[in-house]
Amino acid sequence: MAQAFLHNPSPLLPTRSAPRQAAWNAKPPHLAFEAFEGLAPEAESAAVPVAAQALAEQSVFDEITQGLLQQPATISPKFFYDQLGSELFESITRLPEYYPTRTEHAVMQQHAAEIAAAVGQGRTLIELGAGNCEKARALCRTLAPACFVGVDISADFLQGAVARMREEFPHMDVRAVGADMTRGVTLPADLPRTGRLVFYPGSSIGNFDPPHALMLLEQMRELVDGEGEPGADGGLLIGIDLPKEVEVLEAAYDDAAGVTAAFNLNVLTHVNRLIGSSFDPAQWRHLAFFNTLQSRIEMHLQAMSPLQVRWPGGGVRDFAAGECIHTENSYKYTLPAFTDLLARAGFSRARAWTDPRGWFAVVHAQP
Ligand SMILES: C[S@@+](CC[C@H](N)C(=O)[O-])C[C@H]1O[C@@H](n2cnc3c(N)ncnc32)[C@H](O)[C@@H]1O
Predict the structure, then answer these.
(1) How far is the CA of 239 from the centre of ligand 1 (A)?
(2) Which residue of 154, 222, 268, 294 shows the fewest CB atoms closer than 10 Å?
C-alpha cells in the first residue's frame, strides 16, 4: 500500500533565512525531517495516503524538554493533538460555549457567494491544520476546487478526515500531508503552483505570538505566490477571532462540561508517550483566563501539590504547588490590527466578512 515519492522543499519550510529560522524555533531543530509516505495502520482500506513528515524523535524530545525546563515551563499547543486530542477538540467545537467554530461557519455560509466570487473556482485548496476537514468540505461545495490538500500534525486523524472528503468529492484530487507546519511542510511535488488557495480557519493563527504569526503569514504568502511562479494568482482565506466580552471568551476556553480541561490535561499523557516522562495528569488542573494586556486567552496546567516530573536521560523538573505550565495562547486581533499584520506579510489586498455581532472574521487576502 505504501508508495514513495520525492518531496521538494516548499515555501513553508523555514529555511530561506537563517534569522527567521532562529526566531521561529527559538533554537533551530537538531535534526531534519525524515520524510516518508504510508497509510496509517488502522486505515489500510482508506483511499488517501498520508504523506507524513515525521519529526525526528530526538528533535521532539529536545523541544519538549527545553520547554519543561523554562521558567515558567511551557508545552507547545501543537502537542495537544494526538488522536484523543483531535477527538476532544472536535467535541469542543460542538460545545455551547465554544462560539468560534459555529460563528465562522455562519459567516462562511452567509457570505458564501461573495467569498466564492472573491476566491475563484477550480483552485488548489490547501488547508493548514485541517483537523476533521469539516470547514473545507463546506467550502468545496461552493468552490469546487480541482484539488484539496489537507495538512495536519495529527496524521492518523487527518487520514480519516480526508477519506471522508474523497467519498463526498470522488472527482476531486484529494491529498493529505501529516506535518508540523512550524518545522516545515513538503507539499506534493506535482501540485500546481498557480491558483492556490491556502485555507487557515479556526483562528489558529491566534496560537502564535504576533512575530511568529507574521513569519507564518509570510510563508503562506510565498506559498500562494506559487513559489515564485509568475501569475500565480493565489490567495489566503483565514479565520480570525475578534475581541469581545471577557466572560464570553473565558467560557469558550473553560466549558462547564470540562471538555477543554480534559483536552488541556491530555497533553501530559501525550508528552509522556512522546518523551517517556512521568506526568500524572491527576496532579494537575486546567486554568484559562483572558490576559487583557496581551489581548489573548491563556491556558495553563497548574500543579495541585509540590511534585517532581522526570524523563529519560536524568531530566527532572520540580514544581511547587500552584506552579503552572503554559500550554496555549489564543490572541484576539481587531480587524485593523490583523489587516496590518497581513500587509506586513506582503498581502496588499484584503477583504473581510464578519457576523452581525462582530465576533469572528473571515478574511480573503492576496499579495
Ligand atoms: C484549533 S484546531 C483547528 C481545526 C480545524 N482547522 C478547525 O478550524 O476546526 C488546530 C488544528 O491544527 C493542527 N495543528 C496544530 N499545530 C499544528 C502544527 N504545528 N502543524 C500542523 N498542524 C497543526 C491540529 O492537529 C488541529 O487539527
Answers:
(1) 13
(2) 294
